[in-house]
Amino acid sequence: MMPLDRNVLLVNKLDSSDIVLTMTHEHKLHILRFYPEYEDKVWVLTEYVEPTKLVDVDDPYGLPYESYEDVYQQLKVLLEKIIEKTWTFRPLKNEIKIPYNIVDVHFEVHI
After folding, report:
1. What is the pLDDT of residues 57-73, one digit of tens each?
2. Which CATH number fits domain 4-97: 3.40.50.2300, 3.40.50.1820, 3.40.50.1100, 3.40.50.300?
3. How far is the CA of 94 from the CAs of 48, 59, 82, 87, 102, in angstroms?
4. Which residues does 78 contact at the CB level (< 8 Å), separation at least 6?
5. In the chain, where are the structural domains located?
């Protein structure tokens, strides 16, 4: 069971987010185990980019430097595709419209 203060913080973030992207299917299942009501918001990165493709992004923790570079490249490609998918241009005003709340991006790096 999650501590109460952490639980409240996570629920606030889930409520205020349009999408929640995880690196692995296990991360997604962990969130949904405690908060099934957010099923329509939680996606694995690869699944969000291409719904028929569910592939985990490997955690390079404890692996050689090259593994971090590989994960960086994989994340870069995925995030570029997500931006391409979610951002649209309004031709008359030439403005960028961001249809999702992409304000809180959280990355954890273990060195």
Report:
1. 988 889 999 998 999 88
2. 3.40.50.2300
3. 26, 39, 20, 12, 20
4. 45, 46, 49, 57
5. 4-97
| Residue 34 tokens, joined | 């405690």
Q: Given the DSSP bridges, would you call strands 95-97 and 88-90 parallel, antiparallel or unpaired?
A: antiparallel
Q: What pTM does this model have?
A: 0.69
Are 46 and 75 within 8 A, CB to CB? no
Give the model confidence (pLDDT) of 70-84 as tens digits: 998 898 888 888 888
Write b or e for each residue in 72-108: b if 16 or more Cβ atoms lie within 10 A of its Cβ, otherwise e. eebeeebeeebeeeeeeeeeeeeeeeeeeeeeeeeee
